[in-house]
Amino acid sequence: MPQKPIAYDVPTPELRAATAESIQAEILARLIYSIGKDPIVARPHDWLAATIMTVRDHVMDRWMESSRETWRTSHKRVYYLSLEFLIGRLMRDAMSNVGLMEPVREALKNLNVDLGDLINLEPDAALGNGGLGRLAACFLESMSTLKIPAYGYGIRYVHGLFRQEMSEGWQVELPEEWLAHGNPWEFERRESAYEVGFGGHVESVTDPDGEVRQEWRPNDHLMAVAFDTPIVGWRGARVNTLRLWSAQPIDPILLDKFNAGDHIGALEESAKAEAITRVLYPADSTAAGQELRLRQEFFFSSASLQDIVRRHLQQYGDLGSLADKVAVQLNDTHPAISIAELMRILVDENGLKWDEAWKLTKGTFGYTNHTLLPEALESWPVFLLERLLPRHMQIVYQINADVLADARDRANFSDAQIANVSLIDEAGGRRVRMGQLAFVGSHSINGVSALHTQLMKQTVFSDLHKLYPDRINNKTNGITPRRWLMQCNPGLTQLIADTIGPAFLDDIDRLKDLDGFAEDAGFQARFAQVKLENKRKLAQLIQDRLGIKVSPDAMFDVQIKRIHEYKRQLLNIIHAVAMYDEIRAHPERDWVPRVKIFAGKAAPGYWNAKLIIKLINDVAKVINNDPAVRGLLKVVFLPNYNVSLAEVIVPAADLSEQISTAGMEASGTGNMKFMANGAITIGTMDGANVEMHEEVGADNIVIFGMTAQEVEDMRAERTTPKQMIDASPRLHEVLETIATGVFSPDDPDRYRDLIGGLYEHDWFMVTRDFDAYAKAQNEVDAIWRDKTQWNAMAIRNTARVGFFSSDRTIGQYAQDIWGVTVPSR
Description:
It is a single chain. The protein is an alpha/beta fold. Among the domains are: 371-475, no CATH class; 481-810, Glycogen Phosphorylase B (Rossmann fold). It has 33 helices and 22 strands. A 9-stranded mixed β-sheet has the order 5-8-9-2-1-10-11-15-16, with helices on both faces. Helix 1 (20-35) crosses helix 2 (44-73), helix 2 packs across helix 5 (115-121) and helix 13 (382-388) packs across helix 14. The longest helix has 30 residues, at 44-73. The two termini are 43 Å apart.
């Protein structure tokens, strides 16, 4: 029976009243009728759920009207595919963006409930790990703010990455139980469920007209079920959707096995399905782990594309207009299998000719590259793809044949160049290069900072760039100022509004008006007071969680990010040891009190990263308990780094450590968050630091170390790291101290191999940049002693952060890649 046409001209209900009195009544109604609790006995989690549901109700009308408006106008839709969406807590974000913060605060106060307590009680959504996921979250919020019709597509992880705890200084991975008590923000969409297949075989089928087509017949199936979360733009401009897929078995229990006594085997299908959406980044060091990760990536890519094609056909009836009405952005290589999957859907399921389907596919997809690290540019063994996705492997071979023919016939490529652009890596075992697949299947390939984009052209995609020279472009990353200034730092936001007016809330570029107050003594004093209050809050958190007392008057020197050797937390902690030695050797000097604060997770299988966490904690244990230091230096590692913890740390930071090996950090977004909140950056000329240097000016950032070209040249030289170390007595002494077990008396050899690696190869240039880093830190100390200079630099960092708004980034994506018109705000 045909479906009745949907009437998208249904009148939109009037927005609900938003007074404290009306909100109070709504919260009480939700508490009683949705939660089932009498206010007299309600617990904090009951009040949290009732408040979220009340705020959600005020979002719903805007959400539905946003969807109706897109259908009415036939505006082009943007679909953002990402394996991570680190959205953090949503209640404060939604309240702030729809103007409910004060009415809700007052309503709860009348009910003897503190809004701040409820905000801190909401769990972080465990949907990501680091910058990739936080960027995706910022982008979704900016798309809503700029009124761009958009969906985010990802996976509804039950446990996410992991909850990080410390056991004697070692990282311990535990399940992140964020969904244990449900998620009041999400809505299950049972009607949006798609079958996803794996394995099986491919058959050639001859149609009545004589055309031969390929038909994939999987032997393993599961269902992808959609769960939708509203993403609210600033001032409720638009509400877009984050659609997350949950894997569910087609047959939840095999009754024949159960009745035969195989009670565990009867649940095998459920276990296989649920494994796909249980954990972010399952370890791929084993064959089973590799297969699970590939299943995970195909699962969400296939479900998302089926949903996109279904929606397009529902509105437009045919696929010829797909590239005109749909823009799909691949966030890194994780969804790159989408290229082959869309070709399969177009050719096999909808009967399009290959050339037409390939034109539509390239016109639809854009690909954002986030790394130059070979290990992060995914590749999969050919035999794994042939077994798990046999039809997709056929499609990859056919795409590759066309690309290689183009390279030889049109571009006259050499054999070496052809090997470089091939989708199949023949060296050391045949593997499918997912970065290459994403590149050739997209009309746009963008880097995420000016330096990264230039290096991408010169390194990983050099020959593909020669073959398709018009595809690579730059879109420097950005952050949403709503969460990373207005919400996480209300004191600074209010001070800025009182000083230059509130216009910057809607146009972040207006922060430039703050420049004129950088040298103003009165403003500096108020600015410093806001920073001090934020530091007191962080100091209290450190004491509550770790039992370590730190002084808010000390410099808060912060490095918070994923633990990786190229990010060089090791350089930072080696410098801490050098400072420790000098403070003890020269107690008579005028030392700047400093608290070195670390946070971040190490991948479960990344031994050196986990060893660096242990080293930080071992060094902290010694330094923090040595009376000879007199509290002048403290080292702190805060476990279980997430968005909510960052929202406390970032506003309190004085010094932002952005010290990656030059040429290895694609962009960074933490650097932008610190800049917005008045921290001074010490960093290398890497990633977006280069553009920060341009925006803030050389006098307001502390740059040190080798450039990307110098790093490349140094790696090519024969000078050994040992020669460099021996030439730096200070560094040599510190490394020997660590290597010989001074900080690990229970296991003197614990760090021998870690430090030995610095002597042998030092790929990440820790030792080669150490002296420059130490000199730069001395410069930081000198600036800190001159509070007028320090405050002026900090203020200028906040004033000049406007370029790094994700609104600017998304506006450029819309214009240059997606072909979407951004409505006036």
